[in-house]
Amino acid sequence: MINIVETQMEGGRHLMINLSIINILKKTDSVAFYGDQEQIELISQTHKDIEFIPIRVQKDPPLWRIPFIIPSHLIILTKLLAQRKTLVILSIFPVTHYFFKIITLFFPKTKVKIILHGELKQITNYHNFLQKLLGVFLRKALSIKNENIKYIVLGNTIGKRILQQKWLNQNEMIIIDHPYDYTFEKKIHKADSQYIMFGSIGATSIQKGTHYFCELANKVENNQMKFSIVGGINSEIKPYLNDKIEYTNSTFLSREEFEERVSQLDAAVFFYNAEEYAYTSSGAFFDAIKFELPIFAIRNEFYDDFFTRFGEIGMLFDDKEEFFRYFNDPNLFQNFTVKKIIWKQNLEKMKKQLSEQDYFFR
Hints:
The protein is an alpha/beta fold. It is 39% helix and 17% strand. It has helices at residues 15-26, 37-44, 66-82, 94-104, 129-143, 156-165, 210-219, 255-262, 283-290, 301-310, 320-327, 332-355; strands at 2-6, 31-35, 51-54, 87-91, 112-116, 149-154, 173-176, 196-201, 225-230, 245-246, 267-270, 295-298, 314-317.
C-alpha cells in the first residue's frame, strides 16, 4: 500500500499532475488517497479501485484558520508515518513541512517522497512579509536531513537551481519531467484552415504575462491571425481584454471545456516571467505538448532545455519586441505552414518519449 496525501489543492487544482502520479503509483502497488472531497470525486470518475479518505485541505484559507489546519495535517501525516508504508506528499504548506520533517526523524523505517512545486521561489523571491516568512520555514525544512526522504523535482533546470542554491544535495532529489497524461480523445479540429489560432493556455494573470498576449492580439493587423484565451479570466486581466481575443468570462473552465477549446488552437503562446517561474514547471506547457501545439515563447532556461532535447517545437524569442516583430511579419502564415511539419514531428517524438518515461516509482 502506498499512501498519497494532497494537503493543499482542492477540486480541479493540480488535478492533472495528481492523476498522473496516481497512475504511475498504481502500477507498483495498491493506493490510498487522502485529499479534498471534491478532488476525490473527480479522481474517482476514472479510478474506482482506490481507497479514498477525505480531509480538509489548506488552499487559501483565512489566516485565522491556518493555526488549526496545520496540527490536523501533522496528526494525519504522523499516523501515516507510523504505518511504515511509503508516503507520497503531493503538496504541503511550508510551516507544516518544517514540523513534519522533524517528526519524520522519529520514524526511520518509513520512506517518504515530497513533490516540490512553485513554493520554492518564496525562499528568494517574495512580495510580502508572509511569503518571506513561509520561505524561511521552507528553507529550514529543506535543511533537515533524513535519508528516507526524497524530494521529487519537476524539471532539469529547477534541479540545477536548487543545487546552485545548495538547498538540497543531489542524493536528496529525484529530478523528473513533469508527470502528465498525454492521452486524449481526438476531437475534430477547426474546419477553417485559412487562419492560425494562437492561444494563451491556463489561468490568466499579470504574473503569467497574459496582458502581453492581449497587447499582441491588439497590435497584430494580419487577418490570418486569431487569438484565444483558454483558461479562467483573472480580474486583473479584464482591463487588457479586447475584441480581437476569443475568451469566456468564467474564472475557471471545466476540463471538458478546456480540452474542447484547446483542440481549436494551432499554437500556444507564453509570456511567462522567467524569475517568477524559475522554480515552477508549467502545467500549461505540457497541456500544449499533449495537443501537439507549437510553442511560441520568450526564451528562458525551461524552454531551452526542451528545445535542446527534442529539437524545434516552435519558436523562441529573446524579448517581447522580437516576439511582436515576428507576429507582424506579412509572411508569417506561409512560414508557419512550412515550419509546422517539423514542429509536429518533434512534438510527437517529445510526447512519446515523455509518456514512456519510467519515472521514479518503478
